[in-house]
Write a structure and sequence with these properties.
Length: 130
């Protein structure tokens, strides 16, 4: 069955929404993995004591102000774990642990593979519909 031009445009728009939804879902998975990995990194050195630093680590996905762009946001520290920045970056007397940086670097290495899999999935779906 041949599609009209309008039908073709609608299918492309629908596919775009599908891709955006899939991307959002994949980025939320990335954010979750990043949060878990960072919590583990933060409790290796110094060892897990009160759990304040561990519990202060959170992540989220936000849509950027620019159309079509997303941010994965990783945060640590709160009123109970005000010292998170000192643990991450160090002081004159404390060496930097870089628990957030280490986690982000590990996740960045895996990100292209996840995005490639997402693109392949969407292309297979698009090819199957034609």
């Amino acid at each position: 069955m041949k599609q009209t031009f309008d039908q073709y445009i609608k299918s492309i728009e629908k596919q775009g929404k599908s891709l955006e939804d899939e991307l959002q879902e994949q980025l939320e998975k990335v954010a979750d993995r990043l949060r878990v990995r960072t919590r583990i990194q933060a409790t290796i050195d110094p060892k897990y004591r009160t759990g304040r630093l561990y519990n202060s680590i959170r992540s989220q996905v936000g849509k950027a102000r620019h159309a079509g762009k997303y941010d994965v946001i990783l945060k640590s520290g709160n009123s109970q774990a005000f010292y998170a920045k000192y643990v991450e970056f160090g002081t004159r007397r404390i060496y930097p642990r870089l628990f957030m940086e280490k986690s982000m670097e590990k996740e960045k290495k895996n990100l292209p593979e996840h995005l490639r899999a997402l693109l392949g999935k969407v292309l297979r779906e698009q090819h199957g519909r034609q």
